[in-house]
Amino acid sequence: MLCPCGIDREYEDCCGRWHAGAPAPDALALMRSRYSAYVLGLPDYLRATWHPSTRPPALDLDDPEARRVVWLGLQVKEHRAAGDRAEVEFVARYRVGGGSAVRMAERSRFVREGGRWYYVDGDTA
């Protein structure tokens, strides 16, 4: 199976490594793996890679509305890193049920602590 993150690689050789527990090497790889986790319905991975200071108390991808989301693609616009901090700007497209496609643009912030990258927060456009 090709990786949902949009890189032309097999899932096991791409985001599957990070989902299995290996630390993502940079914020860009983490962001792509988090997108793939939404596509594949992996809430435990999403919570584990969310910085504790901003992590929501619960993330239920099994609720009826979340199950209706069909992810259509990811486009990375920019990746900037400075030491243990990074930003990734991306556009993700999705559809809820049979509705029209929605474009979600975000500039996400990441931090590296203890050798692991974490999603902190983001600004949506």
Automatic annotation (TrEMBL):
<dbReference type="InterPro" id="IPR032710">
    <property type="entry name" value="NTF2-like_dom_sf"/>
</dbReference>
<comment type="similarity">
    <text>Belongs to the UPF0225 family.</text>
</comment>
<protein>
    <recommendedName>
        <fullName>UPF0225 protein B1992_05675</fullName>
    </recommendedName>
</protein>
<dbReference type="InterPro" id="IPR023006">
    <property type="entry name" value="YchJ-like"/>
</dbReference>
<feature type="domain" description="YchJ-like middle NTF2-like">
    <location>
        <begin position="27"/>
        <end position="122"/>
    </location>
</feature>
<dbReference type="Pfam" id="PF17775">
    <property type="entry name" value="YchJ_M-like"/>
</dbReference>
<dbReference type="InterPro" id="IPR048469">
    <property type="entry name" value="YchJ-like_M"/>
</dbReference>
